[in-house]
Structures are given as structure tokens and as C-alpha cells.
Design brief:
Jelly Rolls, globular, alpha/beta, Spore Coat Polysaccharide Biosynthesis Protein SpsA, Chain A, 11 helices, 5-stranded mixed β-barrel, 6-stranded antiparallel beta sheet
């Protein structure tokens, strides 16, 4: 049997789950409730067993998310086969093409299992069993999609209409007769009434070499760009960084449009393993535990005469009186209130925020870095106050600022501070001052996190006022 290469796509920004999901910390990295032990990315990483049949998983991600991917895999003890960095967003077809190039370099008979990083599979054992069956179908030259039985007229999914039965497949697979974009409610109901339609799960099982041949036939410019970007890729710490110039030459196109809707090799295999793409707040309501009035609550809330609502609060106590069918999401810097039937339209709000030159679509108050995170506590004209959280054995870059000075107060742990030629251990309840243009570095030499209150004072306090000299994470200047 061909070796199976799990491919996890982690390039999305999850705008439909704003404000909890942001461009710099999207939904695949988030635990949406206390009963969710793993993030979506971590669950996808463990979805298939490793061993004789399955290779270690390969990840493709936005280069801005590379340290988030690595850290989340380290948390659960997953050693990836490869983490491939996409220097620019080019949709799923180029990403899968690069994954196929990587796999056939190791095994010309490789079969890919392409999985988005932000889906839920409630029965991974059943999923693995269907993947094994799909791999056998794929090894015969078929491009297999997993179809989800359409049991309601959903308008947020693409649809697949099954064609003739593929002989000799067990469980039964079908040739794809047609693909359909996300329909309106009436059309979705008609599909349901007619039968033979599936939701498109976005999970593919592909013979890598055959897939590359088909990409070359249908999208030769894309294959050439991806091949050049992969050939010119370079190793960067634990990552494989695709060549930006070549990869940017690729058309930005989905694998459905580029290949699946045009090839005669497309097949659909039904999947019944508790799938959800968690594509909206209403889908999280579907998955959540609910009270006797149909309300799902994460965080603190007091409800009176309230029904069928999803309420999520990171900090504030939410109170709701006399409302029904609402999505209420509260974060430290943004609040969403939506009719549950309109939760698919949240990206329209995100687009408006982006056009307004605000930052709430892109980042949280807490921003993650490979060394830990910082959180903005307060800001005003010429000053900003942050909390810095530095992981054990981590260090910030050796850096300098032109426009601001910094005053650090250690509130937890012991920090090693470098300022010019000076090196000093700064303990809890001690402080250290850094003038503008001083070269400096903050390290955590200990075994517990270091937390520091940082007061910035200056004429410009943006994150792009960082000049780096040395950085263990190989980051460029902001």
C-alpha cells in the first residue's frame, strides 16, 4: 500500500469567528471553551496515527504564524515531518501543489491526505478508517473528496452531486457529477429534497504524482511557480521557507476551482465521523453544551428570559434580558452582537474595520511572539504600558529604539537584562531603565516565566520602531 502523507493546511485567518479569531491569532490556534483540551490545529495534528501506514504530518502555514505552529506542536509532543512557510497567501491549490512536490521527493507513490487545520472530527478512529479506504481509491488515480451527508439546507457549504458508482471500492465511492457553489436557502432545500448531494468537506485524498500531472495540464503557470519556489526554498531554523519571488508568481486559486472542478478524476467518498468546519459562531453553538433554554455560555453571564443564544466572554460579565437567537462575543477590545442566522456575515464587519485603518481585525490586545507575549494595558499621548511574559529560557532580540525609552519593572521571576556592555540580573520588585538608542536585550534564564511591566515613553511608540542586531528567531526588523 502507498505511504500516506497527512498534510495540514494552516493558512487561514478565520474572519467568521471574529473577534476571538484575528489575522495574527486565527481560530486554528484557539481553544474556544474550557472543555476543549486541544486547539483545532493540535486536534488535526493528532487526527491520524503515525506508523507503518501514515507519515508524520506536514504543515503549511503563513510565515507570520510559524512560531505559533511550532509551539502548539511542542505542547502535545508532535514532531512534524516538515513545516513549510508560505511567504504570501496564494490559496489552497498552490499550497497543496507544494505539499505534493515535497512528498514525491521522498516517495514517488505518495498519497496525500489534505486536511484544513480548523475542522472538528468527533470520531477520529472512524476518520482514520475512511482515510485508509480513500487512499486505496486514490492509489488507482482518483482524486477523492470526502462528502458530508447533507441533512439540512445549509447555505455556508459548497455541494457535490454524486455520479456513477466507482467499481471495486469499499466503502462505496462515486464519481463526482458536478460541483455547486454555496447556494441560497431555496436551492439548498432543493438539493436536500432531490438527494444524492453532499456538503464539500474540503478534505482531499490525492495521489501526489498524478495530482502534479493534472496541475501541469490545467494550471501550468502555477506548477512552474510552485516548483521554482520549492526548489529555491531554504531552511530557516525548524522551517522550510519557500522562495517569495517565485511563489508570488503563482495564481491565487482554490484547489476546487483549479483542479477538482475541471478534472475527470474527481471522486466523492461519504464521510460519517462527526465533521464540522466550525465556520461560524452558530456552528459553535451547534457543538456546545446548552442549558434548558438552548443557551450556550462560555465565561461569565447572567441571563433572564433569554433563549437559543451563544454567549462568549473573555473578561466582562455579560447580562442578557428578553433576547433570542443572538451571538454575543465579548473580548477586551471588541464586542460582537449578531443575529444567529446572520453569523456567516461577520466577515463583512471585519472588512469594514480593516478599511477604517483600525487594528482590531488583525490583532488582540495580547500579541504573541516566539519568546512569549505582550499585552497592552494602557496607552495615551507619548506613553504606553505593557505586560511582557517571557517563557523560560527564551530571549528577546538584541534591539534598539530610535523614538522611545523603556522602564522595566519585574513583577515575577528573574530577568537577565543586557544594556550595551552591561549584564544584570533583575529580580522581582526591581526595575531597570533603558534610554532611546540604547542597545538592549531581555532574557529569561530561569525555569519559570518572567513577567515585566514595561512603561514606554516617547514621540512614537509603534512596533515598527525596532532595529534588531541579533535574534535567535531569525526575524527581520519590524
Amino acid at each position: 500500500m502507498s505511504r500516506i502523507f497527512p498534510i495540514v493546511l494552516s493558512g487561514g485567518s478565520g474572519t467568521r469567528l471574529w473577534p476571538l479569531s484575528r489575522a495574527k491569532y486565527p481560530k486554528q490556534f484557539i481553544r474556544f471553551s474550557d472543555r476543549q483540551d486541544l486547539s483545532f490545529l493540535q486536534a488535526a495534528s493528532l487526527r491520524l496515527p503515525t506508523g507503518v501506514e501514515f507519515e508524520k504530518p506536514t504543515f503549511l502555514c503563513n510565515e507570520d504564524h510559524r512560531f505559533l505552529v511550532r509551539e502548539q506542536l511542542e505542547e502535545i509532543g508532535v514532531s512534524p515531518r516538515e513545516i513549510i512557510l508560505e511567504p504570501v497567501a496564494r490559496n489552497t491549490a498552490p499550497a497543496i501543489t507544494v505539499a505534493a512536490l515535497s512528498a514525491v521527493e521522498e516517495d514517488p507513490e505518495a498519497v496525500l491526505v489534505v486536511m484544513p487545520s480548523d475542522h472538528v472530527i468527533e470520531n477520529p478512529e472512524r476518520f482514520a478508517s475512511v482515510v485508509r479506504s480513500a487512499a486505496k481509491v486514490a492509489a488507482q488515480g482518483n482524486f477523492v473528496l470526502f462528502g458530508i451527508n447533507a441533512d439540512s439546507p445549509q447555505t455556508g457549504y459548497g455541494y457535490i452531486r454524486q455520479g456513477e458508482t466507482l467499481n471495486g471500492t469499499m466503502p462505496t465511492a462515486f464519481r463526482v457529477d458536478a460541483f455547486f457553489e454555496k447556494p441560497d436557502k431555496e436551492t439548498a432545500q432543493r438539493y436536500l429534497d432531490q438527494g444524492g448531494y453532499y456538503w464539500n468537506s474540503g478534505i482531499f485524498v490525492l495521489p501526489a504524482a498524478r495530482f502534479l500531472d493534472e496541475v501541469g495540464r490545467l494550471e501550468p503557470e502555477m506548477l512552474a511557480a510552485c516548483r521554482s519556489a520549492f526548489t529555491a526554498a531554504r531552511n530557516d531554523l525548524d522551517f522550510l521557507r519557500l522562495d517569495k519571488r517565485f511563489f508570488a508568481d503563482s495564481p491565487s486559486v482554490s484547489v476546487d476551482f483549479a483542479v477538482m472542478e475541471k478534472t475527470d478524476a474527481a471522486a466523492v467518498l461519504p464521510l460519517d465521523a462527526g465533521w464540522s468546519d466550525v465556520g461560524s459562531w452558530s456552528s459553535l453553538w451547534d457543538l456546545a453544551d446548552r442549558d434548558e433554554n438552548g443557551n450556550a455560555v462560555v465565561g461569565g453571564a447572567f441571563l433572564e428570559d433569554t433563549r437559543n443564544c451563544y454567549i462568549h466572554s473573555n473578561r466582562s460579565v455579560v447580562s442578557a434580558v428578553g433576547v433570542e437567537n443572538l451571538i454575543i462575543v465579548d473580548t477586551p477590545d471588541a464586542i460582537l452582537v449578531s443575529d444567529s442566522s446572520r453569523s456567516q456575515d461577520v466577515p463583512k464587519i471585519v472588512e469594514k474595520i480593516a478599511r477604517s485603518n483600525r487594528s482590531e481585525h488583525e490583532q488582540h490586545v495580547r500579541e504573541y511572539r516566539p519568546w512569549g507575549y505582550f499585552e497592552t494595558l494602557n496607552s495615551g499621548p507619548r506613553f504606553q504600558v505593557k505586560l511582557l511574559h517571557v517563557k523560560p529560557k527564551a530571549k528577546l532580540s538584541l534591539q534598539m529604539h530610535h523614538h522611545r525609552s523603556e522602564h522595566w519593572v519585574v513583577v515575577k521571576g528573574t530577568a537577565l537584562v543586557v544594556r550595551g556592555e552591561e549584564r544584570k540580573l533583575v529580580c522581582e520588585n526591581e526595575s531597570f531603565y533603558i534610554s532611546a538608542t540604547d542597545w538592549h536585550r531581555l532574557e529569561n534564564p530561569g525555569k519559570v516565566p518572567v513577567e515585566i511591566i514595561e512603561v514606554q515613553i516617547g514621540t512614537y511608540l509603534g512596533e515598527d520602531d525596532i532595529v534588531r542586531s541579533e535574534d535567535v528567531y531569525n526575524r527581520a526588523a519590524e
